[in-house]
């Protein structure tokens, strides 16, 4: 018997690698897309909170826009003694379809302020 393996096993590692590699790449892309979406969600949460606090103090809407990620939209609504700020952003996930993230923050209007 010559060699270390059977003759019909030659090249099987190459075939297994060629089959497994696309699956690994797809999983990596999904992981990176999830990571990107999570980071964008954190930025939106921070921006919505800052904008809600600024609106509750009666500061102009432009104050809250300073913390906004690029491409994000903001809406500020007054509901009784509450200010509700909604921030939306379309996030590209590379080769995967883009998604729209939405974050909302609510703050109590401070008595001496005039919120929008």
From TrEMBL:
* UniProt KW keywords: Membrane, Transmembrane, Transmembrane helix
Q: What sections of the protein cross the membrane?
A: 17-35
What is the name listed in the Swiss-Prot or TrEMBL entry for this protein? TadE family protein
Q: Which organism is it from?
A: Dactylosporangium aurantiacum
